Predict the structure.
Amino acid sequence: MISSKEIRQSFKEFFKSKQHQIVSSAPMVIKDDPTLMFTNAGMNQFKDIILGNAPVKYKRVADSQKCLRVSGKHNDLEEVGHDTYHHTMFEMLGNWSFGDYFKKEAIAWAWEYLTGVLKLDQERLYATVFEGAPDEHLERDDEAASYWEQYLPKERIINGNKHDNFWEMGDTGPCGPCSEIHIDIRPESERAAVDGLTLVNQSHPQVIEIWNLVFMQYNRKADNTLEPLPAKVIDTGMGFERLCMAVQGKLSNYDTDLFSPIIRRLGEISSAAYGEDPGRDVAMRVIADHVRTIAFSITDGQLPSNARAGYVIRRILRRAVRYGYTFLGMHESFMYLLIPTLIEVMGEAYPELPAQQTLIEKVMKEEEESFLRTLETGIKMLEKNLPEKEGGVLSGEVAFQLYDTYGFPLDLTELILREHGMRADVEGFNAEMQKQKDRARNAAATETGDWTRVREGDPLFVGYDETESTTQLLRYREVKQKNRKFFQIVLSRSPFYAEMGGQVGDSGWLMADDGSEKIVIFDTKRENNLAIHLTDRLPRDVKGSFIARIDAEKRTATECNHTATHLMHEALRNVLGTHVEQKGSYVSPELLRFDFSHFQKMTTEELRAVERKVTAAIRGDFAIEEHRHLPIAEAKAQGAIALFGEKYGDDVRTVRFGTSIELCGGTHISSTGRIGTFRIVSESAIAAGVRRIEAVTAKVCEEYLYAKEDAIVEIKSLLNNVPDIMQGVQRLLTENDEMKQQIQDFVKEKTGQLKQHIIDKKEDVSGVTLFKVVLPVGIPDVVKDIAFQLKSEFPEKMLFVAGVASNGKPSLTVMLSDDLVVRGFHAGNMVREAAKLIQGGGGGQPHFATAGGKNAEGLQAAVDAIVKKLSE
Ligand code: ATP
Ligand code: MG
């Protein structure tokens, strides 16, 4: 059997032999595309090239890309595990042509690879082509069909509609017809009985699409019309797991060598056998699929969290844990135990997995455990909210709350309800779900207009060297968001740094060079590698010349923090060890925030050591040494650390200060001395195995240190300027302890006196010893103490009633001996009724209860009312 590793390799080799440049997979988590959280197709990493924002470096490219389809337009999550050929994370094999070859070669090579290289049975293959769309004046893709006819009989070339066979990047942008290759992998007997042709595109698990060839030849404009695309693009995507299934002669992706070792290991851990029970099989597939997704997103820098992409990952993990819990009886964390097997299967092709094994396992285990706790709480909450009677219906709101807050999918809630002979209001649940979706959509709704091109040219970033440059507008467009309208501008030359790699974007001004106007640029963002300047209004003369000037003070403060981040990164690796890896970074004028892998809390000594190293590097006053275009291999050879989850070209920029060297595209201070000073403000955990440090530099740090000094001065003056504040505070603490003791003694004495007073005044009411007291001032705790003492001293036929006011607030206390409780008296009920007389409420146990109120005047009456109960 040819292994998945060999298949992946053969794809790359085949396209290499067709003059394609083989590139690596981009990270699965996307950072500079507002329309997309995760890579969901091979083409994502080339979007900037296809949109014309980046130059075409290689006209022919091929790769294997990690994809994730769990949100947005492509969301297969609900299918995964229930069917045998959709995954959350999968590998997409693809080849591209940017303005080079087109349909003819794309089709010929796909055919050659499948049937010539992999020797798939030609008789089992089908192709679809676009049938045309009269409403858009689009004709059938006869061109593609004519190429297919060279390999396939006409009847196996199937027409497909706009939905299946016309691909669009988004609401606007490149689009075009596509042609899919489907394969029938059913056993011969079944094929003889039913013609495969009738099963194509019918969701049959063994007659499936494996490869989609997209022919981008149009551009969709905001007014919905199509215009021809100047440079045509070939974009293909083939599901690697499905291909392995076909080549390895399996009927399910999960039977290939990509998944079967994981399923086998899961069987050992859970003592479940795969293939015996349909419910358990679904669960095992879900887990085998999801464990990959979570491991890869952690290595790509996306940890499970409470927001956005992190939340999507958290929910996937929870889905797997829940399936394990319900169907495999796994009530303790277990998924992390699958990581070594996953690494055996995929570690060679994806070295980020073995490199970060400990982190993946730690994060996964902790997430599992915390969700299992939530699950238990949720089950309790569900049981508390169970409808009153058998056959009852749980409201849609509660079911949704369980789903939303506790991560309970509806089917789990239903399962638990069924065990109690009840059901959930599914319609109500769906309505709540819809409401939430609408809310999300309204919050996110953005309308982006077409670009208006002012002049041709490529934007140039000059912000490493300049803070001010003469420039012109290349293009602009309008963006409407909920309550806001603004403009995006692309400039020919720009000193504005566009937000990336954690460093915030610049703000500043655009000034007409005749001085006639000045507009504010409030932020600079990056979209698909294009620097976009945001402004509330356009200049009057968009064709004019301008001076673009950044807010230099803000930039300098940011640069101090950015450079300090590099110095601190190195210091952390020196002090803690090289397991420290950057997991997140945020650099603004106010502070720097740095997330990194490390497995325990840092000690005060370690924090100090890091601070000392950073401040030493600051005093060393190292000047920046940068290389703007270094081949990546050379950069790595110099010791620059590349981050997992970051997308690097072949040409990189390195930034060095003394011994610190990093791959970095951000802006930095010219020499470390200018940072002035540095302090760590906090160190905390943000996930299992991931710590976060926040630190400040320069002016902000100065203010931070002054605030600390001021506090000390103030404390000193509060302590009457004692020469040694530590001694002063110590003295206060000792005094305080002594006073506490005195008060305790005093209260004890008073309690004794009061108790004696109460005992002296005891009464006998129908054979019951009654202790009662009403005091205008008193301490509730003292009363409670007395109540319990009396109960143990007078264990039979005893009632104690007290009404006291403390700081004007009245309270009632009732204590009953146990025999009175047996006779039917209930302290809780007694106090609840009487509490009305002090305008309050309360309750408690049958033998002891308290109530608070507002009207102290009513205390005597309330106490009398309780006493009266005794004789009733
Ligand atoms: P399907 O209709 O089967 O969901 P699709 O039309 O969504 O496929 P494309 O967007 O064209 O698929 O993606 C290209 C290829 O990627 C498909 O031909 C298929 O082989 C593979 N693929 C798509 N979605 C998944 C998935 N969720 N899991 C595994 N492979 C997938
Ligand atoms: Mg799909």
Notes: The pocket of magnesium ion (ligand 2) is lined by residues 74, 76 (CB under 6 Å). The mean pLDDT is 93.
